[in-house]
Write a structure and sequence with these properties.
By secondary structure, this protein is mainly alpha-helical. It has 3 domains: 8-62; 79-321, no CATH class; 332-379. The protein contains 16 helices and 5 strands. The chain has helices at residues 8-17, 22-25, 32-37, 44-53, 89-111, 129-140, 153-166, 211-227, 245-259, 262-272, 278-286, 290-299, 305-322, 332-353, 359-366, 370-379, and strands at 170-174, 176-177, 180-184, 192-195, 202-206. The strands form 2 sheets. The chain has a 3-stranded mixed beta sheet, sandwiched between helices. A two-stranded antiparallel sheet has the order 2-3. The relative contact order is 0.10. The protein binds a DNA duplex (20 and 20 nucleotides) through helix 4, strand 3 and helix 14. GO terms for molecular function: DNA binding. This is Putative Zn peptidase.
DNA sequence: TGCTTCTCTTCGGGAAATGA
DNA sequence: TCATTTCCCGAAGAGAAGCA
């Protein structure tokens, strides 16, 4: 059998980049230690399997030395204002997949003589973020009190996502890489990102996060699209302790006004301020995290800092305790409306049906194959040949 | 002996339905 | 209203059989 001469440094780099200790791979690759010491070379098939296991493009393993992979986009929201260090393969693969979708949709819309979306890049950092938040709300057609008319956070996220798609924005909410349930996206690493483009803007939200937090991330990423190129270039920030730079602070403020308008909050405050947990009452009404509603109440001078930070500390501790509890179940095809994006999936399926795109490309863009792709198309009302 | 290929099983994601 | 269960898939892993 043919063995492949591969740099032991590259093998070690691939394994460490995937965050896998050698013990985790030794079962599948018993000679891995010898490969990394340069005492033995893997076969072609073994190297292919190794690339798959470490989520490294196969060709990278033939480079003379480990590549320096730059972050493909500058903005992404992280937890706790942490600056991103080494970027995980899961995040990188997610960004690359979203960039492929965006590039395809941009070409598709260019071919269809689509007009650029006027709201992309319509705001400036010198603008009032509150006014931008109100404009975002107006364009999406979300009237006063819309969140009180939906029952759950789940419905609120779905309604917001649908309103975003109506404006021609690809909105993807996913907690894993594609449909690979073995590759969960780490919310400690990022909460979401925006890919600005005036023909095919895209927002991505990490659904491993709490529903209430997803609402804020959606709104935050939306604000990035409003800033356009001016909003790119800085790292993400969760919005509680604002030192994440001008752009992040701007987007957080616009998102806060978008989700919790000052006028509505002031009107509601007298009714909830004597509740056992007023921030939770506000959160339930506006379908945002209690942290966001509490912070908003503090910024508007409705409550003092001590009350907010007491609540914040207790809430964070409670979230940590509850984090391990999860529920299973679900419907695969319903999930695709979030993972692929209903609007995007429909466009790809129509393009495949009309022969403007090959089925292989359609499979690649949606992450679905063969019968699964056909079944999802059928459920969306597209009859494929 | 070491490796490849194939088949079968297990895992785990989440919206919606159902039950308490 | 909240908790639990259902459904369906792709990916990964284990094991068996065969090959060099």
């Amino acid at each position: 059998m043919t063995r492949v001469a591969v740099s032991s440094d590259l093998l070690r780099w691939a394994r460490e980049r995937a965050g896998l200790p050698i013990e985790d791979l030794i079962g599948r690759f018993p000679k891995l230690a010898a490969w990394e010491r340069g005492e033995l070379s893997p076969t072609f098939n073994q190297l292919e399997s190794f690339a798959k296991a470490t989520h490294v493009p196969f060709g990278y393993l033939f480079l003379p030395e480990p590549p320096d992979l730059p972050m493909p986009i500058p903005d992404f929201r992280t937890l706790g204002n942490r600056q991103p260090g080494a970027v995980s393969p899961d995040l990188l693969d997610t960004i690359y997949a979203m960039q492929r979708r965006q590039a395809w949709l941009r070409e598709e819309r260019l071919d269809g003589d689509a007009e650029p979306l006027a709201f992309v890049g319509s705001a400036r950092l010198s603008d009032d973020p509150g006014a931008v938040g109100r404009e975002m709300r107006r364009l999406l057609g979300l009237g006063d009190g819309w969140t009180t008319r939906v029952r759950t956070w789940q419905e609120a996220v779905s309604a917001l996502r649908a309103a975003i798609e109506e404006q021609g924005i690809i909105a993807v909410i996913n907690g894993i890489v594609g449909n690979d349930t073995h590759r969960r996206l780490n919310v400690e690493e990022f909460r979401g990102f925006a890919l600005t483009d005036d023909l095919a803007p895209l927002v991505f939200v990490n659904s491993a996060d709490a529903k209430s937090a997803q609402m804020f991330t959606l709104a935050h990423e939306l604000a990035h699209l409003w800033l356009g190129a001016e909003g790119a270039g800085l790292s993400g920030f969760p919005g509680i302790f604002p030192d994440g730079g001008r752009v992040e602070t701007f987007c957080d403020r616009a998102a806060a006004e978008f989700l919790v308008p000052a006028a509505e909050l002031r009107a509601l405050w007298p009714q909830v301020k004597r509740d056992a947990s007023p921030f939770e009452s506000l959160a339930s009404a506006f379908k945002v995290s209690p942290i966001v509603s509490g912070r908003r109440a503090m910024d508007l001078g409705l409550t003092d800092r001590a009350a907010f930070f007491d609540f914040y500390d207790a809430y964070v501790q409670r979230e940590k305790r509850q984090k391990t509890q999860g529920v299973g179940g679900g419907s695969f095809y319903n999930n695709q409306n979030l993972r692929v994006g209903r609007l995007f999936a429909l466009q790809v399926m129509r393009a495949a049906k009309e022969g403007r795109i090959g089925f292989k490309d359609a499979y690649d863009l949606t992450g679905l194959h063969g019968g699964t792709f056909q079944e999802y198309a059928s459920r969306l009302g597209v009859d494929l040949p």
